[in-house]
Amino acid sequence: IVFLIDHGMAPYREIIETSFPGSYLAYWLGIHTFGSSALGFMLFDYTIMAAAAIAMFSISLSRKAWLAGAVGAVTLFVAHIAGNCLDSAQRDFIMAALELCGCACTFLALRRKLPVLLFFAGFAFSFATAIKPTAALFFLILFIAILRVRRQGIAIRKYVSASIIGAALAAAIVVTFLVREGSFFAFFDILGRLDAVHGSLRTTSFLGMIYNLFFKDTGRLLLLPVVLLWAAQRDLRKSFELQMLLLCVVLGMASFLVQQKGWHYHLYPFLAFESLWIALVLVETLRQPGRLRYVAGALLCVVLFLELPLGVKHSVSVDFPQDFLFAL
Known about the structure:
Blueprint: H1 2-6, H2 21-34, H3 38-62, H4 66-81, H5 91-112, H6 117-131, H7 139-151, H8 157-180, H9 184-192, H10 194-200, H11 206-214, H12 218-221, H13 223-231, H14 234-237, H15 240-259, H16 268-286, H17 292-315, H18 322-327
């Protein structure tokens, strides 16, 4: 589609497709930065992964738990390569990276009392929403963060202004793109007709989606035990950042379920925050006195010596049908 746009065709008017304009802009940026070759697209994909990893390290380093950032990033990377080339630079993967960056900026803004960082958080969440509207759920993180600032007796005007300006800038970029292509009204026409139909098409049963969320691999089986481990520790249970990251896990679940497709790449917002949250809880529990640290150690061993090797094994053992390879 980027090739067609570069050669004069207008999205939504001459190119009938249901993706949101933010995805076209993201792919245009990636292709014009790294090139349109397979190597360029791979570099674009790895750049998205690097952005997600940097956000994870930012969150974990601020909690003095760098190991959690490393484990979370590696877990997400293994889950990503397990999808092979089919999941390279998928829209939900870009969204997940933007949402992680938005949360990292939000947490830093609260820790350092720097309202300007919410500009970047607002921009990240807004641009992610321009890729897929399910990302709008993550504006709840900004709203709760601003409420927390208000409860601390700090004036929220700068925080609110920075958030709104950042979100508005991302929206303005998208609107400018649509107007420049003469596709502003055509987009809303597609949105009201094709997107409504596409969004209502369910390709997987609800039970199938629940299976994909919680039982498809070892890492997802760990979520409930780690939630119980977190709930059993008052210090971790009261941590605002861990609460918000767990909320992000829930929002990632909602993003997956609302799309009603059950496809692997729709899991990325859920997988990104689940990987980081589980790693943070396990690593921080290891530093606590008491017997729970032994439980955390055992669960961390499951992640390192079972989940990750199985993920790598799956990534190198997928066979593509010959007709698919011929089509490529």
